[in-house]
Amino acid sequence: MPDTATMSVLARKAAAGRARAPRHAVSVDHGQTPARALVRAIKRAGMPYPGLEAEPRDETVAWDQSLAAVTDALPEGGLLVILEGADRLRGILHLHQGFLDALIEVQTTGAVDSVEGQVRPATQIDAALSRDFIDMMLSSLETELEEQGFGDLLV
């Protein structure tokens, strides 16, 4: 285990959350396991942010859509992140405007306002403040998928 004196506060909180998070046995269902892993990864990444409701909607996850299909389906606003993995495989991550606002608010004010703000273009500050959440979510997703035998989805 790394020396906690050299870890950032956010890293220590994330480590503490992972240590407290209960593990549940999940049966392998080749149709739903990756989607469930994504839901668990999002929830786990939201744990270090008190008041942040990281509760994904119950939507179908498609791992192999075309770029055109994905961009047509995206809602207005929010943060769009292009991910690049091994062998130049790419993915898209979109943080919905309401969630992005909540993530920024919890980090800057310590609370989440119940009033949803107007749709606006994401800024570089939004991207910078979202980076830790996204990194934790992707790391947790990788772990979840490897444990279930789906590690090749993130290659």
List keywords for this structure.
single chain; 155 residues; mainly alpha; two-stranded antiparallel ribbon; 5 helices; 2 strands; 8% strand
Account of the 3D structure:
This protein has one domain (9-16, 27-154). Helices cover 45% and strands 8% of the residues. It is built from five helices and two strands. The chain has helices spanning 9-20, 33-46, 67-73, 97-108, 124-147; strands spanning 79-84, 90-95. The chain has a two-stranded antiparallel ribbon. Helix 2 packs across helix 5 and helix 4 (97-108) packs across helix 5. The radius of gyration is 16 Å and the shape is globular.
Over all CA atoms, what is the radius of gyration? 16 Å
Task: Give the fraction of residues assigned to helices.
Answer: 40-55%
Strand order within the widest beta sheet: 1-2
**Secondary-structure element pattern, one letter each:** HHHEEHH
> How would the global form be characterised?
globular
**Beta strand count:** 2
Mean pLDDT: 78
Largest sheet: 2 strands, antiparallel
Percentage beta strand: 5-15%
Give me the number of helical elements. Answer: 5
How many domains make up the 3D coordinates?
1
Low-pLDDT sequence parts: 20-30
Assembly type of the chains comes to single chain
The secondary structure category is mainly alpha
Span between termini: 26 Å
Helices, strands, pairings?
Layout: H1 9-20, H2 33-46, H3 67-73, E1 79-84, E2 90-95, H4 97-108, H5 124-147
Helix pairs in contact: 2-5, 4-5
Quick take:
With 155 residues, the protein is mostly helical. The protein is built from five helices and two strands. Helices cover 45% and strands 8% of the residues.
